[in-house]
Amino acid sequence: MTDQIIVDVRGAHYSVGGREIFSGLSIQAIKGQITAVMGPSGTGKTTLLRLMTAQIYADRGEVLVFGENLGDLNSRQTFALRRRMGMLFQNSALLSDMDVFENVAFPLREHTNLTEPLIRNLVLTKLNAVGLRGAAELMPEELSGGMARRVALARAVVMDPELLIYDEPFVGLDPIALGVILRLIQQLNRALGITSIIVSHDVHELATIADRTYLMAAGTIVASGTPKDLADSDLPIVRQFMSGAPDGPSPFHYPAPDLISQFLNGVGP
Amino acid sequence: MTTAVAQDGLVLRSVARIGRIAIFFARMLMQCGPVLARPELVIKQIYNAGGRSLVIIMLSGLFTGMVLALLGFTLLQRFGSEEALGFAAALALLKELGPVLTALLFAGRAGTALTSEIGLMRATDQLTAMQMMAVDPLRYVVAPRFLGGLISMPLLTGVYDVVGLFGAHTVGVRMMGVDNGSFWSQMQSSVDLHDVYEGMAKSLVFGFICSLIAVYEGYHAEPTAEGVGLATTRTVVASSVLILLLDYMLTAAFL
Q1: Which of B125, B134, B140 is the closest to A82 by Cβ?
Q2: What does the DSSP 8-state code read for residue B223?
Q3: Of A17, B66, B83, B157, which has fewest CB within 10 angstroms of its CB?
Q4: Residue A90, in any domain of the structure
Q5: pTM, whole model, 2 decimals?
Q6: Cβ separation B129–A91 shorter than 8 A
Protein backbone atom coordinates (compact mmCIF):
# COMPACT_ATOMS: atom_id res chain seq x y z
CA MET A 1 0.00 0.00 0.00
CA THR A 2 2.88 2.39 0.85
CA ASP A 3 4.08 2.47 -2.74
CA GLN A 4 0.54 3.35 -3.78
CA ILE A 5 0.71 6.61 -1.82
CA ILE A 6 2.25 9.22 -4.11
CA VAL A 7 1.86 12.24 -1.84
CA ASP A 8 1.74 11.88 1.93
CA VAL A 9 1.44 15.01 4.08
CA ARG A 10 1.82 14.00 7.74
CA GLY A 11 0.85 16.42 10.47
CA ALA A 12 2.19 19.50 8.73
CA HIS A 13 2.46 22.75 10.67
CA TYR A 14 3.23 25.97 8.83
CA SER A 15 3.11 29.60 9.94
CA VAL A 16 3.75 32.90 8.19
CA GLY A 17 4.49 36.02 10.24
CA GLY A 18 3.13 34.42 13.41
CA ARG A 19 -0.14 33.41 11.71
CA GLU A 20 -0.68 29.67 11.67
CA ILE A 21 -1.72 28.44 8.22
CA PHE A 22 -1.60 24.67 8.91
CA SER A 23 -1.90 23.04 12.30
CA GLY A 24 -1.25 19.33 11.92
CA LEU A 25 -2.64 18.90 8.41
CA SER A 26 -2.54 15.40 6.88
CA ILE A 27 -3.45 14.41 3.33
CA GLN A 28 -2.72 11.42 1.11
CA ALA A 29 -2.93 11.15 -2.67
CA ILE A 30 -3.24 7.59 -3.99
CA LYS A 31 -1.61 6.43 -7.23
CA GLY A 32 -3.85 6.77 -10.28
CA GLN A 33 -6.59 8.60 -8.40
CA ILE A 34 -7.92 12.13 -8.64
CA THR A 35 -7.65 13.74 -5.21
CA ALA A 36 -9.55 16.97 -4.66
CA VAL A 37 -8.71 19.48 -1.95
CA MET A 38 -11.53 21.93 -1.33
CA GLY A 39 -12.04 24.71 1.13
CA PRO A 40 -13.11 28.33 1.46
CA SER A 41 -10.86 31.05 0.06
CA GLY A 42 -7.94 31.92 2.29
CA THR A 43 -7.66 28.52 3.98
CA GLY A 44 -4.24 27.86 2.46
CA LYS A 45 -5.05 25.57 -0.47
CA THR A 46 -2.41 27.08 -2.75
CA THR A 47 0.04 27.12 0.17
CA LEU A 48 -0.58 23.37 0.52
CA LEU A 49 0.44 22.89 -3.13
CA ARG A 50 3.58 24.93 -2.54
CA LEU A 51 4.32 22.62 0.39
CA MET A 52 3.84 19.53 -1.79
CA THR A 53 6.17 20.88 -4.48
CA ALA A 54 8.98 21.97 -2.11
CA GLN A 55 8.54 25.67 -2.84
CA ILE A 56 8.14 26.07 0.92
CA TYR A 57 8.81 23.68 3.80
CA ALA A 58 6.73 22.65 6.81
CA ASP A 59 7.79 24.01 10.20
CA ARG A 60 6.87 20.63 11.72
CA GLY A 61 5.57 17.38 10.27
CA GLU A 62 6.60 15.62 7.06
CA VAL A 63 5.75 15.92 3.39
CA LEU A 64 6.60 12.80 1.38
CA VAL A 65 6.35 12.74 -2.41
CA PHE A 66 7.12 9.46 -4.22
CA GLY A 67 8.31 8.24 -0.81
CA GLU A 68 10.95 10.99 -0.48
CA ASN A 69 10.81 13.40 2.44
CA LEU A 70 11.00 16.82 0.79
CA GLY A 71 12.72 18.32 3.82
CA ASP A 72 15.70 15.96 3.34
CA LEU A 73 16.33 16.73 -0.34
CA ASN A 74 18.96 19.15 -1.65
CA SER A 75 18.13 21.40 -4.59
CA ARG A 76 19.48 18.91 -7.17
CA GLN A 77 17.34 16.12 -5.73
CA THR A 78 14.32 18.43 -5.54
CA PHE A 79 14.71 19.30 -9.21
CA ALA A 80 15.03 15.59 -10.07
CA LEU A 81 11.80 14.91 -8.17
CA ARG A 82 10.00 17.76 -9.92
CA ARG A 83 10.78 16.19 -13.29
CA ARG A 84 8.33 13.46 -12.29
CA MET A 85 5.53 15.97 -11.70
CA GLY A 86 3.68 18.63 -13.62
CA MET A 87 1.82 21.65 -12.33
CA LEU A 88 -0.98 23.71 -13.79
CA PHE A 89 -0.94 27.24 -12.40
CA GLN A 90 -4.03 29.30 -11.67
CA ASN A 91 -2.81 32.03 -14.05
CA SER A 92 -1.32 29.50 -16.51
CA ALA A 93 2.19 31.04 -16.11
CA LEU A 94 3.09 30.67 -19.78
CA LEU A 95 6.50 32.09 -20.67
CA SER A 96 5.63 35.42 -22.24
CA ASP A 97 8.57 35.62 -24.67
CA MET A 98 7.75 32.30 -26.39
CA ASP A 99 4.89 31.25 -28.63
CA VAL A 100 2.57 28.37 -27.77
CA PHE A 101 4.72 25.76 -29.52
CA GLU A 102 7.92 26.86 -27.76
CA ASN A 103 6.15 26.99 -24.40
CA VAL A 104 5.13 23.35 -24.71
CA ALA A 105 8.52 22.38 -26.15
CA PHE A 106 10.40 24.16 -23.34
CA PRO A 107 10.67 21.20 -20.88
CA LEU A 108 11.66 18.85 -23.72
CA ARG A 109 14.43 21.16 -24.91
CA GLU A 110 15.73 21.63 -21.36
CA HIS A 111 15.67 18.02 -20.22
CA THR A 112 16.03 15.78 -23.29
CA ASN A 113 18.30 15.42 -26.28
CA LEU A 114 15.45 14.60 -28.63
CA THR A 115 15.80 15.54 -32.27
CA GLU A 116 13.88 18.52 -33.59
CA PRO A 117 11.42 16.40 -35.67
CA LEU A 118 10.65 14.28 -32.59
CA ILE A 119 10.11 17.37 -30.41
CA ARG A 120 7.83 18.78 -33.10
CA ASN A 121 5.75 15.59 -33.20
CA LEU A 122 5.49 15.38 -29.41
CA VAL A 123 4.48 19.02 -29.02
CA LEU A 124 1.90 18.84 -31.80
CA THR A 125 0.50 15.62 -30.29
CA LYS A 126 0.04 17.29 -26.89
CA LEU A 127 -1.41 20.44 -28.46
CA ASN A 128 -3.77 18.28 -30.50
CA ALA A 129 -4.91 16.56 -27.29
CA VAL A 130 -5.97 19.93 -25.86
CA GLY A 131 -7.43 21.05 -29.19
CA LEU A 132 -4.90 23.81 -29.87
CA ARG A 133 -2.68 22.37 -32.61
CA GLY A 134 -3.83 25.26 -34.80
CA ALA A 135 -2.74 27.82 -32.20
CA ALA A 136 0.89 26.67 -32.11
CA GLU A 137 2.25 29.95 -33.49
CA LEU A 138 0.21 32.29 -31.29
CA MET A 139 1.85 34.25 -28.49
CA PRO A 140 0.49 33.92 -24.92
CA GLU A 141 -1.05 37.42 -24.99
CA GLU A 142 -3.14 36.38 -28.00
CA LEU A 143 -4.84 33.55 -26.07
CA SER A 144 -8.07 33.64 -24.08
CA GLY A 145 -7.97 32.48 -20.44
CA GLY A 146 -9.34 29.06 -21.34
CA MET A 147 -6.88 28.60 -24.21
CA ALA A 148 -3.94 29.63 -22.02
CA ARG A 149 -5.06 27.10 -19.40
CA ARG A 150 -5.15 24.37 -22.07
CA VAL A 151 -1.68 25.29 -23.36
CA ALA A 152 -0.39 25.19 -19.78
CA LEU A 153 -1.98 21.75 -19.43
CA ALA A 154 -0.25 20.56 -22.61
CA ARG A 155 3.05 21.87 -21.23
CA ALA A 156 2.43 20.20 -17.86
CA VAL A 157 1.97 16.77 -19.47
CA VAL A 158 4.57 16.98 -22.23
CA MET A 159 7.17 15.17 -20.10
CA ASP A 160 4.60 12.46 -19.21
CA PRO A 161 4.61 13.16 -15.45
CA GLU A 162 3.46 10.62 -12.87
CA LEU A 163 1.85 13.32 -10.74
CA LEU A 164 -0.10 16.31 -11.97
CA ILE A 165 -1.05 19.15 -9.64
CA TYR A 166 -3.77 21.63 -10.56
CA ASP A 167 -4.12 24.97 -8.78
CA GLU A 168 -7.69 26.29 -9.19
CA PRO A 169 -8.03 25.01 -12.77
CA PHE A 170 -11.62 26.21 -13.19
CA VAL A 171 -11.29 29.82 -12.04
CA GLY A 172 -12.46 32.43 -14.55
CA LEU A 173 -13.52 29.96 -17.23
CA ASP A 174 -16.77 30.12 -19.19
CA PRO A 175 -18.96 26.96 -19.03
CA ILE A 176 -17.61 25.61 -22.33
CA ALA A 177 -13.94 26.10 -21.42
CA LEU A 178 -14.65 24.70 -17.96
CA GLY A 179 -16.23 21.58 -19.47
CA VAL A 180 -13.22 21.15 -21.79
CA ILE A 181 -10.71 21.39 -18.92
CA LEU A 182 -12.79 19.03 -16.78
CA ARG A 183 -12.89 16.47 -19.58
CA LEU A 184 -9.16 16.81 -20.24
CA ILE A 185 -8.29 16.24 -16.58
CA GLN A 186 -10.43 13.12 -16.53
CA GLN A 187 -8.99 11.84 -19.83
CA LEU A 188 -5.40 12.36 -18.69
CA ASN A 189 -6.12 10.52 -15.48
CA ARG A 190 -7.90 7.59 -17.14
CA ALA A 191 -5.79 7.24 -20.31
CA LEU A 192 -2.33 7.82 -18.83
CA GLY A 193 -2.94 6.78 -15.24
CA ILE A 194 -1.60 10.11 -13.96
CA THR A 195 -2.14 10.75 -10.25
CA SER A 196 -3.89 14.09 -9.93
CA ILE A 197 -4.30 16.56 -7.09
CA ILE A 198 -6.78 19.34 -7.71
CA VAL A 199 -7.12 22.32 -5.45
CA SER A 200 -10.36 24.17 -6.02
CA HIS A 201 -13.55 25.42 -4.42
CA ASP A 202 -15.78 24.39 -7.30
CA VAL A 203 -17.79 21.75 -5.46
CA HIS A 204 -19.99 20.50 -8.27
CA GLU A 205 -17.24 20.23 -10.90
CA LEU A 206 -14.96 18.29 -8.55
CA ALA A 207 -17.78 15.97 -7.46
CA THR A 208 -18.02 14.63 -11.01
CA ILE A 209 -14.36 13.61 -11.35
CA ALA A 210 -12.73 13.23 -7.90
CA ASP A 211 -12.07 9.80 -6.37
CA ARG A 212 -11.33 11.25 -2.95
CA THR A 213 -12.09 14.67 -1.54
CA TYR A 214 -10.61 16.58 1.38
CA LEU A 215 -12.23 19.64 2.91
CA MET A 216 -9.86 22.15 4.51
CA ALA A 217 -10.79 24.73 7.11
CA ALA A 218 -8.95 26.52 9.90
CA GLY A 219 -5.58 25.05 8.96
CA THR A 220 -6.55 21.41 9.01
CA ILE A 221 -8.67 18.77 7.28
CA VAL A 222 -12.20 18.82 8.67
CA ALA A 223 -13.70 16.10 6.45
CA SER A 224 -12.61 13.60 3.82
CA GLY A 225 -14.09 10.82 1.72
CA THR A 226 -15.72 10.35 -1.64
CA PRO A 227 -17.65 13.31 -3.03
CA LYS A 228 -20.85 11.43 -2.03
CA ASP A 229 -19.58 11.05 1.56
CA LEU A 230 -19.12 14.81 1.77
CA ALA A 231 -22.46 15.52 0.16
CA ASP A 232 -24.16 13.27 2.77
CA SER A 233 -22.15 14.62 5.72
CA ASP A 234 -23.94 16.08 8.75
CA LEU A 235 -20.98 18.18 9.85
CA PRO A 236 -22.04 21.87 9.92
CA ILE A 237 -18.85 23.11 8.18
CA VAL A 238 -19.28 20.53 5.39
CA ARG A 239 -22.95 21.38 4.98
CA GLN A 240 -22.16 25.09 4.86
CA PHE A 241 -19.48 24.62 2.23
CA MET A 242 -21.43 22.17 0.06
CA SER A 243 -24.57 24.35 0.12
CA GLY A 244 -22.71 27.64 -0.23
CA ALA A 245 -24.35 29.22 2.83
CA PRO A 246 -22.75 32.66 3.48
CA ASP A 247 -22.45 32.30 7.24
CA GLY A 248 -21.88 29.39 9.58
CA PRO A 249 -18.84 27.70 11.14
CA SER A 250 -16.80 29.44 8.44
CA PRO A 251 -17.75 33.06 9.25
CA PHE A 252 -18.80 35.57 6.60
CA HIS A 253 -17.04 38.41 8.45
CA TYR A 254 -13.31 38.69 8.88
CA PRO A 255 -12.55 39.16 12.61
CA ALA A 256 -13.39 42.78 13.46
CA PRO A 257 -14.27 44.98 16.48
CA ASP A 258 -17.87 45.04 17.66
CA LEU A 259 -20.11 46.70 15.05
CA ILE A 260 -21.70 49.28 17.39
CA SER A 261 -18.44 50.28 19.06
CA GLN A 262 -16.78 50.74 15.68
CA PHE A 263 -19.55 52.88 14.20
CA LEU A 264 -20.56 54.89 17.28
CA ASN A 265 -17.43 55.05 19.41
CA GLY A 266 -14.85 55.42 16.67
CA VAL A 267 -13.00 52.17 17.46
CA GLY A 268 -10.72 51.01 14.65
CA PRO A 269 -10.18 52.73 11.28
CA MET B 1 21.85 57.20 21.67
CA THR B 2 18.83 56.79 19.40
CA THR B 3 20.80 58.17 16.46
CA ALA B 4 23.64 55.73 17.15
CA VAL B 5 21.21 52.79 17.24
CA ALA B 6 19.55 53.99 14.04
CA GLN B 7 22.96 54.31 12.36
CA ASP B 8 23.89 50.82 13.54
CA GLY B 9 20.62 49.54 12.05
CA LEU B 10 21.34 51.25 8.76
CA VAL B 11 24.88 49.86 8.65
CA LEU B 12 23.65 46.37 9.51
CA ARG B 13 20.95 46.52 6.84
CA SER B 14 23.47 47.74 4.28
CA VAL B 15 25.96 45.00 5.15
CA ALA B 16 23.17 42.40 5.05
CA ARG B 17 22.09 43.67 1.65
CA ILE B 18 25.62 43.52 0.26
CA GLY B 19 25.88 39.98 1.66
CA ARG B 20 22.64 38.95 -0.05
CA ILE B 21 23.82 40.40 -3.36
CA ALA B 22 27.16 38.58 -2.99
CA ILE B 23 25.42 35.24 -2.34
CA PHE B 24 23.08 35.87 -5.28
CA PHE B 25 26.09 36.64 -7.48
CA ALA B 26 27.90 33.47 -6.36
CA ARG B 27 24.82 31.35 -7.15
CA MET B 28 24.44 33.04 -10.52
CA LEU B 29 28.15 32.65 -11.29
CA MET B 30 27.80 28.87 -10.93
CA GLN B 31 25.18 28.98 -13.69
CA CYS B 32 27.26 31.14 -16.05
CA GLY B 33 29.34 28.16 -17.23
CA PRO B 34 26.37 26.14 -18.52
CA VAL B 35 24.91 29.31 -20.04
CA LEU B 36 28.08 30.02 -22.03
CA ALA B 37 27.67 26.56 -23.54
CA ARG B 38 24.41 27.85 -25.04
CA PRO B 39 25.55 31.11 -26.68
CA GLU B 40 22.17 31.69 -28.34
CA LEU B 41 20.70 32.61 -24.92
CA VAL B 42 23.41 35.24 -24.33
CA ILE B 43 23.34 36.59 -27.89
CA LYS B 44 19.59 37.20 -27.56
CA GLN B 45 20.22 39.22 -24.39
CA ILE B 46 23.11 41.16 -26.00
CA TYR B 47 20.59 42.19 -28.62
CA ASN B 48 17.96 43.08 -25.99
CA ALA B 49 20.29 45.04 -23.71
CA GLY B 50 22.81 46.33 -26.27
CA GLY B 51 21.16 46.32 -29.69
CA ARG B 52 18.01 47.99 -28.48
CA SER B 53 20.02 50.69 -26.68
CA LEU B 54 22.03 51.59 -29.79
CA VAL B 55 19.87 54.47 -30.99
CA ILE B 56 19.83 56.34 -27.68
CA ILE B 57 23.56 55.69 -27.20
CA MET B 58 24.43 56.98 -30.68
CA LEU B 59 22.24 60.05 -30.34
CA SER B 60 23.70 60.89 -26.94
CA GLY B 61 27.24 60.26 -28.17
CA LEU B 62 26.69 62.51 -31.18
CA PHE B 63 25.36 65.44 -29.14
CA THR B 64 27.95 65.02 -26.40
CA GLY B 65 30.73 65.15 -29.00
CA MET B 66 29.18 68.22 -30.62
CA VAL B 67 28.85 70.08 -27.31
CA LEU B 68 32.37 69.05 -26.37
CA ALA B 69 33.70 70.51 -29.62
CA LEU B 70 31.77 73.76 -29.20
CA LEU B 71 32.97 74.34 -25.64
CA GLY B 72 36.45 73.02 -26.33
CA PHE B 73 36.89 75.23 -29.35
CA THR B 74 35.78 78.35 -27.44
CA LEU B 75 38.18 77.57 -24.61
CA LEU B 76 41.16 76.52 -26.73
CA GLN B 77 40.76 79.47 -29.07
CA ARG B 78 41.61 81.81 -26.16
CA PHE B 79 45.04 80.19 -25.95
CA GLY B 80 45.47 79.88 -29.70
CA SER B 81 45.57 76.10 -29.60
CA GLU B 82 42.34 75.11 -31.37
CA GLU B 83 44.20 72.34 -33.22
CA ALA B 84 44.35 70.47 -29.88
CA LEU B 85 40.56 70.03 -30.10
CA GLY B 86 40.83 66.46 -31.42
CA PHE B 87 43.10 65.47 -28.56
CA ALA B 88 40.85 67.12 -25.91
CA ALA B 89 37.65 65.61 -27.27
CA ALA B 90 39.16 62.15 -27.62
CA LEU B 91 40.58 62.15 -24.12
CA ALA B 92 37.34 63.39 -22.54
CA LEU B 93 35.26 60.85 -24.44
CA LEU B 94 37.53 57.82 -24.09
CA LYS B 95 38.45 58.23 -20.43
CA GLU B 96 35.41 59.83 -18.86
CA LEU B 97 32.30 60.80 -20.77
CA GLY B 98 32.08 57.65 -22.90
CA PRO B 99 32.06 55.07 -20.10
CA VAL B 100 30.13 57.17 -17.56
CA LEU B 101 27.36 58.50 -19.81
CA THR B 102 26.97 55.15 -21.57
CA ALA B 103 26.60 53.45 -18.19
CA LEU B 104 24.06 56.01 -16.96
CA LEU B 105 22.04 55.63 -20.16
CA PHE B 106 22.37 51.85 -19.98
CA ALA B 107 21.05 51.87 -16.39
CA GLY B 108 18.08 53.97 -17.46
CA ARG B 109 17.28 52.09 -20.65
CA ALA B 110 18.45 48.46 -20.36
CA GLY B 111 18.75 48.18 -16.55
CA THR B 112 15.13 49.16 -15.97
CA ALA B 113 13.99 46.86 -18.77
CA LEU B 114 15.88 43.94 -17.21
CA THR B 115 14.47 44.59 -13.73
CA SER B 116 10.88 45.04 -14.85
CA GLU B 117 11.02 42.01 -17.17
CA ILE B 118 12.34 39.67 -14.48
CA GLY B 119 10.05 41.25 -11.86
CA LEU B 120 7.00 40.70 -14.05
CA MET B 121 8.08 37.12 -14.68
CA ARG B 122 8.14 36.70 -10.89
CA ALA B 123 4.72 38.39 -10.49
CA THR B 124 3.10 36.19 -13.15
CA ASP B 125 4.55 32.95 -11.72
CA GLN B 126 6.77 32.34 -14.76
CA LEU B 127 9.85 31.88 -12.57
CA THR B 128 7.96 29.47 -10.29
CA ALA B 129 6.70 27.60 -13.36
CA MET B 130 10.31 27.16 -14.49
CA GLN B 131 11.29 25.84 -11.07
CA MET B 132 8.37 23.42 -11.25
CA MET B 133 9.68 22.26 -14.64
CA ALA B 134 13.01 21.58 -12.89
CA VAL B 135 14.68 24.49 -14.70
CA ASP B 136 16.65 26.90 -12.54
CA PRO B 137 15.59 30.48 -13.40
CA LEU B 138 19.07 31.65 -12.38
CA ARG B 139 20.45 29.62 -15.28
CA TYR B 140 17.78 30.27 -17.86
CA VAL B 141 16.63 33.82 -17.05
CA VAL B 142 19.14 35.62 -14.83
CA ALA B 143 22.62 34.51 -15.95
CA PRO B 144 22.06 35.15 -19.70
CA ARG B 145 20.72 38.64 -18.97
CA PHE B 146 23.65 39.42 -16.67
CA LEU B 147 26.18 38.23 -19.26
CA GLY B 148 24.32 40.06 -22.04
CA GLY B 149 24.54 43.32 -20.07
CA LEU B 150 28.17 42.75 -19.13
CA ILE B 151 29.21 42.15 -22.75
CA SER B 152 27.02 44.94 -24.15
CA MET B 153 28.45 47.74 -22.04
CA PRO B 154 32.01 47.92 -23.50
CA LEU B 155 30.56 47.52 -27.00
CA LEU B 156 28.11 50.36 -26.42
CA THR B 157 30.90 52.48 -24.92
CA GLY B 158 32.98 51.89 -28.05
CA VAL B 159 30.06 53.00 -30.24
CA TYR B 160 29.48 56.04 -28.01
CA ASP B 161 33.14 57.07 -28.29
CA VAL B 162 33.25 56.70 -32.08
CA VAL B 163 29.99 58.57 -32.66
CA GLY B 164 31.08 61.22 -30.13
CA LEU B 165 34.33 61.78 -32.03
CA PHE B 166 32.33 62.05 -35.24
CA GLY B 167 30.17 64.74 -33.61
CA ALA B 168 33.22 66.60 -32.33
CA HIS B 169 34.84 66.39 -35.78
CA THR B 170 31.70 67.64 -37.49
CA VAL B 171 31.40 70.71 -35.28
CA GLY B 172 35.13 71.38 -34.83
CA VAL B 173 36.34 70.86 -38.39
CA ARG B 174 33.31 71.49 -40.58
CA MET B 175 31.65 74.28 -38.59
CA MET B 176 34.43 75.96 -36.60
CA GLY B 177 37.13 75.59 -39.19
CA VAL B 178 39.73 73.61 -37.23
CA ASP B 179 42.25 72.03 -39.60
CA ASN B 180 41.30 68.45 -40.40
CA GLY B 181 44.89 67.19 -40.39
CA SER B 182 45.67 68.86 -37.06
CA PHE B 183 42.49 67.45 -35.51
CA TRP B 184 43.49 63.85 -36.27
CA SER B 185 47.25 64.15 -35.89
CA GLN B 186 47.01 65.79 -32.45
CA MET B 187 44.68 63.01 -31.39
CA GLN B 188 46.95 60.29 -32.80
CA SER B 189 50.10 61.65 -31.20
CA SER B 190 48.64 62.44 -27.77
CA VAL B 191 46.11 59.72 -27.04
CA ASP B 192 47.73 56.60 -25.69
CA LEU B 193 46.42 53.05 -25.89
CA HIS B 194 46.44 53.19 -22.08
CA ASP B 195 43.66 55.82 -22.28
CA VAL B 196 41.53 53.44 -24.34
CA TYR B 197 42.16 50.62 -21.87
CA GLU B 198 41.18 52.88 -18.99
CA GLY B 199 37.83 53.66 -20.60
CA MET B 200 37.19 50.04 -21.43
CA ALA B 201 38.11 48.92 -17.90
CA LYS B 202 35.65 51.45 -16.51
CA SER B 203 32.91 50.31 -18.85
CA LEU B 204 33.46 46.67 -17.86
CA VAL B 205 33.17 47.56 -14.16
CA PHE B 206 30.05 49.66 -14.83
CA GLY B 207 28.57 46.86 -16.97
CA PHE B 208 29.12 44.40 -14.14
CA ILE B 209 27.53 46.69 -11.52
CA CYS B 210 24.55 47.81 -13.66
CA SER B 211 23.72 44.28 -14.84
CA LEU B 212 24.11 42.73 -11.37
CA ILE B 213 21.89 45.34 -9.71
CA ALA B 214 19.27 45.08 -12.47
CA VAL B 215 18.93 41.28 -12.32
CA TYR B 216 19.13 41.19 -8.51
CA GLU B 217 16.38 43.78 -8.07
CA GLY B 218 14.17 42.09 -10.67
CA TYR B 219 14.65 38.63 -9.17
CA HIS B 220 13.81 39.88 -5.66
CA ALA B 221 11.01 42.26 -6.62
CA GLU B 222 7.75 41.98 -4.67
CA PRO B 223 5.35 40.16 -7.02
CA THR B 224 3.00 43.15 -7.32
CA ALA B 225 2.72 46.11 -9.70
CA GLU B 226 4.00 48.44 -6.97
CA GLY B 227 6.81 46.02 -6.07
CA VAL B 228 8.07 45.87 -9.66
CA GLY B 229 7.88 49.67 -9.92
CA LEU B 230 9.88 50.12 -6.72
CA ALA B 231 12.48 47.57 -7.84
CA THR B 232 12.89 49.42 -11.14
CA THR B 233 13.40 52.71 -9.29
CA ARG B 234 15.97 51.10 -6.97
CA THR B 235 17.86 49.82 -10.03
CA VAL B 236 18.23 53.30 -11.54
CA VAL B 237 19.11 55.02 -8.26
CA ALA B 238 21.61 52.42 -7.03
CA SER B 239 23.24 52.02 -10.47
CA SER B 240 23.60 55.77 -11.02
CA VAL B 241 25.10 56.46 -7.60
CA LEU B 242 27.49 53.51 -7.85
CA ILE B 243 28.58 54.48 -11.37
CA LEU B 244 29.55 57.97 -10.23
CA LEU B 245 31.21 56.72 -7.04
CA LEU B 246 33.18 54.01 -8.84
CA ASP B 247 34.12 56.46 -11.59
CA TYR B 248 35.83 58.66 -9.04
CA MET B 249 37.63 55.69 -7.47
CA LEU B 250 38.73 54.26 -10.82
CA THR B 251 39.89 57.65 -12.12
CA ALA B 252 41.97 58.09 -8.97
CA ALA B 253 43.36 54.55 -9.33
CA PHE B 254 44.40 55.10 -12.97
CA LEU B 255 46.19 58.43 -12.28
Answers
A1: B134
A2: S
A3: A17
A4: no
A5: 0.85
A6: no
